[in-house]
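Subject: sequence -> structure tokens, single chain

Hey, anyone have a minute? Need the predicted structure for the following. Not urgent.
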Amino acid sequence: MNVKELIDQLEPRIQERVEKAYKRYNQVTREAMRNVTRLRLQKGKRKFIQGNEQLETRVPVQVKLAAPEEIESLVIPADGVIAATLSKWKPELEMLRGSSSEIFCLLMNGTKIDCVDNEVLYRPDIVNLTGSLEDAGKLAEKLLAEIDAFDVVGWLFHEMDGDVLGRYYYSHHGLTSDDGSARIELYSGIIALVSSRLGIEVEDLTVVVLAHELAHAYTHLGFDSNNHRWVDDDFYEAQHELKEGLAQYYGRLALEHLADIIPGAIPAYEKLLEKQPPAYQVHREWLDRDNPEAVRHALVTLRRENFVGIDRFNDYLHRPAK
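Reply:
Had a minute. Here:
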């Protein structure tokens, strides 16, 4: 079994749900990203001048059911196929395991009470089925153990180094929009697969992925107050940990701005973070230790002075602003 076959088992409306979430939250997410980065992507006729080049930035978003072939063709290990297939029902199995005795009491009395031997009047038509209910609880326990033996989400992130839910493309890749500008792709099938396995809403995870990819775009292409942005070649050469750390950092700040509008987004972010590889964890100390102004100062300085390493970024982070 490969990843595409696993996605094909999901409900067919997933694509529509991801597209609706994107359309509903795209504008407010972009506004939140502008607020937290204090960088601007310019639209329409207005242009900034950098050197002798007039720059006009567009970052459209495409929602795609199909992920890149290198993701969908990943073959699930033979000893993980059963777990990967069952994992979509993990929340329901946990509910069954945890509430089987309560379900019995509810059926017999019509209310939630303590189920204690010799204190409950058993109805014959139900008491004869108690063995089946007990077996269902045991089956749920066994299936959950099978699921826990293979973490399909963790495996997927490990195989692709985390770059699976969406991607930010820009001119250096040679994979851009028709007019040469950058673009973002959201992979609805993978988003649906991961959300079902983590027990979070598709819409919440869609916003988390959108914020992360927009953070890539803003930290790369966003102009500061002096009309500087990150030069394409330098952004391309920048350390993976630096680019992903910044996207995680500003993605999280943007979601905090949106907490009243999309309250499930931050819990979804935190659940996803538990599964992501080390490059997606480096921002944690920035959140815990450094204030947003210091992080922004380090980013703006790094871009202006054409450095690409995370060590230099951390050096700027702890250097007082001039």
